Amino acid sequence: MTAVRPEGPSAGTGPLETPESRYGRTADQRADHKLKVIGAVLGVALLAMVAWFGYDYVSGEKVSAEVIKWSVVSDTKVEAHLEVRKDSGVKGYCTMRSQAASGAEVGRADFRFDQDEGRIDRVVTLRTTGRATNAELVGCHAG
């Protein structure tokens, strides 16, 4: 039996490759395959986690509100017209705050919305410790 040797400039300088069907894959090829599988699984898990957090953030807001208008009634009161949107039957509250001209907070209060309606218009009165220059909606929460 005679061996056939490759001819040309790279003859005998490169690594010899064995037939995969006879000897199987090399250790490097097996490690590369494992890394590709692990990377694909981790990529899918990360994508699923981002999708879950996004969905939860968008659908998790059960109560939301908007300040339609506000006015300073006196040195110790601010009235604000709130429009609250929520799912019917959900109870919740909204936090409002007021600041003085210096930027110091002079009033903060929670207002409950336990009605069954999905949209509620209500004028609320925020008591302050000094003359207010604004009325700001901090946020709304279910519960």
Structure description:
The chain is α+β, with helices and mostly antiparallel strands. The protein folds into 2 domains: 35 residues; 80 residues, Immunoglobulin-like, CATH 2.60.40. Helix content is 26%, strand content 38%. It contains 2 helices and 6 strands; from the N terminus they run ααββββββ. A 3-stranded antiparallel β-sheet has the order 1-2-5, with no helix packed on it. A 3-stranded antiparallel β-sheet has the order 4-3-6, with no helix packed on it. A hairpin with a 5-residue loop joins strand 3 and strand 4. The N and C termini lie far apart (87 Å). The relative contact order is 0.16.
Strand content: 35-45%
Order of helices and strands: HHEEEEEE
CATH architecture of the largest domain: Sandwich
Q: Mean of residue pLDDT?
A: 85
For the sheet with most strands, the description reads: 3 strands, antiparallel
Distance between the termini: 87 Å
Strand order across the biggest sheet? 1-2-5
Give the structural class.
Answer: alpha+beta
Number of strands: 6
Q: In one word, what is the shape?
A: elongated
Region (Disordered): 1-26
Protein name: DUF4307 domain-containing protein
Transmembrane segments: 35-55
Keywords: Membrane, Transmembrane, Transmembrane helix
Topology:
Elements: H1 20-23, H2 27-59, E1 63-74, E2 77-86, E3 92-99, E4 105-113, E5 119-127, E6 136-142
Antiparallel strand pairs: 1-2, 2-5, 3-4, 3-6
Keyword list:
single chain, 143 residues, alpha+beta, Immunoglobulin-like, 2 domains, three-stranded antiparallel beta sheet, 2 helices, elongated, transmembrane, membrane, DUF4307 domain-containing protein, DUF4307, transmembrane helix
